[in-house]
Write a structure and sequence with these properties.
Number of domains: 3
Order of helices and strands: EHEHEEHEEEHEHEHEEEHEEHEH
Radius of gyration: 23 Å
CATH class of the largest domain: Alpha Beta
Distance between the termini: 56 Å
Strand content: 25-35%
Number of helices: 9
Low-confidence stretches: none
Helix content: 25-40%
Structural class: alpha/beta
Mean pLDDT: 93
CATH superfamily of the largest domain: ACT domain
CATH topology of the largest domain: Alpha-Beta Plaits
Number of strands: 15
Largest sheet: 6 strands, mixed
Length: 311
């Protein structure tokens, strides 16, 4: 049976390019959805097997729409992640030369990252803004007229958009941040985590029980004392009133690791609620070192010692 997966649309965006990189989605049917909320809700409702959404960018930071959707609503699980280099390409209809480009259409984020290149290479060109880079490529291919009534000459978009709409790349890698990377996650209905690989990541949301001095420190101590390294932590409003925040956390390791499991038990004691969003293989394949005293064997030995003392 062919599985269907949702992704943040429209077609030919970076999110679709990321979806094509997930091994679990090979041969699956991909369907664009208009928003992160719609894509994840389709996974919640069982309308699709899972949803691919962006969660953070090395330049722009976290994608708040995705974080808020993971924090609120019915629980879901993150089962995989990929890292996609964000490379912008200037795309035009076949036969147009770079020197002829005068009207460019793109998304505001792409415009901000490619503004310097356009100013240096095409000083006479003007840039108009649209809802997405893919929509910009589609408009160029369809000869959609701009504000002055003339069709756009080129679009700044993902390379995939050029392939999808039959456009020619006039220039590649035109963004200022050549090392920019976006992290995408595969979200599914809650289920049993995959087995640990030694190169894993766990995502949690910690809701403090009440606002008091040292509340964040209490959370951090649960990880620090057990040798668990955090790769990301940030506060987000819970949506339940002014001043009420929770903490979205990514840590190195798997829920099956003793140090991670004990840290989660510590969170359960000091927090009002802890939402487990999954343990899954890291996209970068890094196997972080385990500090002395924090291996599974070390925790097992300590538990055995305590059982012996208790008689």
């Amino acid at each position: 049976m062919t599985h269907r997966y949702a992704y943040l649309g429209p077609e030919a965006t970076f999110t679709e390019a990321a979806a094509l990189r997930f091994p679990a989605l090979a041969g699956a049917e991909l369907e664009p959805f208009p928003s992160v909320h719609a894509a994840i809700n389709a996974a919640r409702a069982g309308e699709v097997t899972g949803a691919v959404v962006p969660v953070e960018n090395s330049v722009e930071g976290s994608v708040n729409a995705t974080l808020d959707e993971l924090i609120r609503g019915e629980p879901v699980s993150i089962t995989a992640e990929v890292l996609l280099p964000v490379t912008f390409t200037l795309l035009a209809r076949p036969g147009l030369d770079l020197a002829e480009v005068r009207r460019i259409l793109t998304h505001p984020v792409a415009e901000a990252q490619c503004r310097a290149w356009v100013s240096a290479k095409l000083p006479e060109a003007t840039i108009s803004l649209g809802p997405s880079t893919a929509a910009a490529a589609s408009a160029v291919a369809a000869r959609t007229p701009g504000p002055d009534g003339a069709p756009y000459d080129a679009a700044i978009a993902a390379p995939l958009a050029g392939e999808r709409y039959g456009l020619t790349a006039l220039a590649s890698d035109i963004g200022e941040d050549s090392d920019a990377v976006t992290r995408f996650v595969l979200v599914t209905a809650p289920g049993k985590p995959a087995r640990p690989t030694g190169s894993d990541k766990t995502t949690l949301v910690a809701f403090i029980r009440d606002d008091h001095p040292g509340a964040l420190l209490e959370i951090l101590e649960q990880f620090a004392t057990r040798g668990v390294n955090l790769t990301r932590i940030e506060s987000r409003p819970t949506g339940n009133g002014m001043g009420r925040y929770c903490f979205a956390i990514d840590v190195e390791g798997h829920v099956a690791d003793a140090r991670v499991g004990e840290a989660m038990m510590g969170l359960k004691r000091v927090c009002g609620t802890v939402r487990f969003l999954g343990s899954y293989p890291r996209a970068d394949g890094i196997r972080p070192p385990v500090r002395p005293g924090t291996s599974n064997a070390d925790f097992a030995d300590a538990a055995s010692w305590l059982d012996h003392l208790r008689g």
